[in-house]
Amino acid sequence: MSSNMAWVTLATNDSYSLGALVLAHSLKTAKTVHKLAILITPGVTTSMKQQIEAVFDDVKVVDVLDSKDQTHLALMCRPELGVTFTKLHCWTLTNYEKCVFLDADTLVLQNCDELFEREELSAAPDPGWPDCFNSGVFVYKPSQETFGQLLEFARTRGSFDGGDQGLLNMYFKEWAHTDISKHLSFTYNVVWSSTYSYLPALKQFGQNMKIIHFIAASKPWLQSFNTETRVVTPTSGGTGLQTLLQFWWDLFCQYVHPSLSTEMGGLAGQ
Ligand code: UDP
Ligand code: MN
């Protein structure tokens, strides 16, 4: 039942790879029955790639500039959309029937395999502008045709925010007003913002959180972590963030750090 569906993430360098590894372990801890796939670029070191290969079922190396002519040509017109173009490659994983994309800065707190029952494009509202979806978590159907259309759209129209979220919200613009079943609950992509939060709602619904998304400066691997006490101290953030960051670091210490070489172990927590 599960073999043709996968969780997909992306890492273009070693720090985002740490996020991807912890994310993968959070999915395993939540006992997902689905495959784990990742897109990486040559910016990920060989030793980190080995760590990734040991954890993910499917590792696809994409090099935006050397890939198919179609991508290269589109990128030449829009060099500012580099990482965005890399994310779009998730549509090329056509060996899967359906996928859920997760940013490398997300963390799964509870099993959410039911997301695979949703159709393309399902996503949760962005708290900064809820008529847009946040592109850190979305359900999609791999297709070369859609990939080609997204590239063409990017080349001709660009992205209103310079990133994948603006592009995808323009391409899937009917999301805002058409089909409520494509609106995922906010609990599937709790965007942690240091500037705005609705604390009574967090208190009321916080235990329902399924996926947390550490956007912007709240990246777990950039927080200060005490290796003696194994406690993380958030540099910014607000109520509740500490517990979630601690869960990230607990997974990191239990599953990721032991297998990193000593050389690479120094990379996190600084
Ligand atoms: N990403 C990456 N390398 C980068 C920047 C981004 O691999 O240098 C990937 C990674 O999967 C990340 C996603 O693109 O989670 C989106 O970027 P980010 O999460 O930093 O954006 P935010 O969610 O903070 O807006
Ligand atoms: Mn993100």
Describe the protein's architecture and organization.
The chain is of the alpha/beta class. The chain has helices spanning 14-29, 46-55, 69-77, 82-88, 144-157, 164-171, 199-205, 241-256, 262-265, and strands at 5-11, 35-40, 58-61, 98-102, 106-108, 122-126, 129-140, 190-191, 211-213, 224-226, 231-233. Strand 8 (190-191), helix 7 (199-205) and strand 9 form a beta-alpha-beta unit. The longest helix is centred in the N-terminal third of the chain and has 16 residues, at 14-29. The chain is globular and about 50 Å long. The protein binds uridine-5'-diphosphate and manganese (II) ion. Manganese (II) ion binds next to loops.
Shape: globular
According to DSSP, the number of beta strands is 11
Biggest sheet features:
6 strands, mixed
The set of bound ligands, ions and cofactors reads: uridine-5'-diphosphate, manganese (II) ion
Helix/strand/pairing class, anyone?
alpha/beta
Strand-and-helix sequence, N→C?
EHEHEHHEEEEHHEHEEEHH
Can you give the helix content as a percent range? 25-40%
| Rounded Rg | 18 Å
Distance between the termini: 42 Å
Q: Give me the oligomer status.
A: single chain
Quote the beta fraction.
15-25%
Order the strands across the largest sheet as they lie in space.
3-2-1-4-7-6
Distinct helical segment count: 9
| Uncertain ranges | none
Mean pLDDT: 91
Secondary structure blueprint with pairings:
Blueprint: E1 5-11, H1 14-29, E2 35-40, H2 46-55, E3 58-61, H3 69-77, H4 82-88, E4 98-102, E5 106-108, E6 122-126, E7 129-140, H5 144-157, H6 164-171, E8 190-191, H7 199-205, E9 211-213, E10 224-226, E11 231-233, H8 241-256, H9 262-265
Parallel strand pairs: 1-2, 1-4, 2-3, 8-9
Antiparallel strand pairs: 4-7, 5-9, 6-7, 10-11
The structure holds uridine-5'-diphosphate (UDP) and manganese (II) ion.
